[in-house]
User: What shape does this take?
Amino acid sequence: MFFLKKFFSKKFEISELEDALYENGVEPKFADIIIDTLSGEAQELDIKDALKKNIKEKLNPQNNIDWNFEPNTLYLIIGNNGSGKTTFIGKFLHLLKEKNLKPSVVAADTFRAAAMEQLEHFANKMDVPFFKGTDKEDPAAVVYKGMINFKEDNSVLIVDTSGRQHNNKNLMDELKKISNIIEKNQNQFLNIKTLLTLDANIGLASKQIIEGFQSYVSIDGLIINKVDSNAKYGALLTIINDFDIPIVFEGYGEDIKELRMFEFEKYLDRLL
Ligand SMILES: Nc1nc2c(ncn2[C@@H]2O[C@H](COP(=O)(O)OP(=O)(O)O)[C@@H](O)[C@H]2O)c(=O)[nH]1
Ligand SMILES: [Mg+2]
Assistant: This one.
């Protein structure tokens, strides 16, 4: 991160700065603010503060949310293939246990046996109850059974799902069905939270993915994974600005501990 630092001195070509911004997923609207600030009269010392101020003025952040880790919550984890759903769940189990909640998991990614094994591995490692479907079983049926199987002394249920593209109607209908089953059988859960995982590397293309998923299910929060890869971090400005859905978590590595709550101020510090 900190890719803008090298532009803090006034000796740079605007085109070089523009390229760097676009490569980092910063859309033109925010690129203009940054270019104007850096080429304007702000002093070198407070340039970072000037950038933050100017960005915040134009941004419409809905991100300062208090995310509650309440018991009796079911989390449905959805997203594209490889966007980090299962890895996130492994990390989330760790985080929930640190908060003295008692998670359990349902593997409804019946499409790939290896995906269920991957999740089972995390569940065993974290010593939490695990429920899985059989190969190619209807994922909505697996979720239903997992909910029935859920014991009251476990306080949180996390449901892993197969990766799907937002424009694949069959798979999106399948997701809708899962979501409906959850809603109809939610009695023992106080809260249902649907979280969409996004790979930070895809940058502004996240917009279409969020919109696509939103047209089938309501999304309560976003998880941005692979921010450690450094690419396209600037695209989060647009996600924050354009959507009412908070970014809740950031995954910044493959290790179980490499998950943090998303904080807007810290995000700007890392970006700039
Ligand atoms: N560097 C990095 N890799 C990640 C992160 N999250 C997931 N991955 C990797 O991305 C790949 C896909 O992750 P996976 O959880 O299987 O994605 P899923 O298909 O959505 O369940 C795996 O190789 C993970 O180790 C992250 O925050 N940083
Ligand atoms: Mg997976």
Summary: The radius of gyration is 20 Å. The chain has two domains: 5-58, 73-262. The beta strands are 73-79, 103-107, 130-132, 156-160, 191-199, 221-225, 247-251, 259-261. The chain has a mean pLDDT of 90.
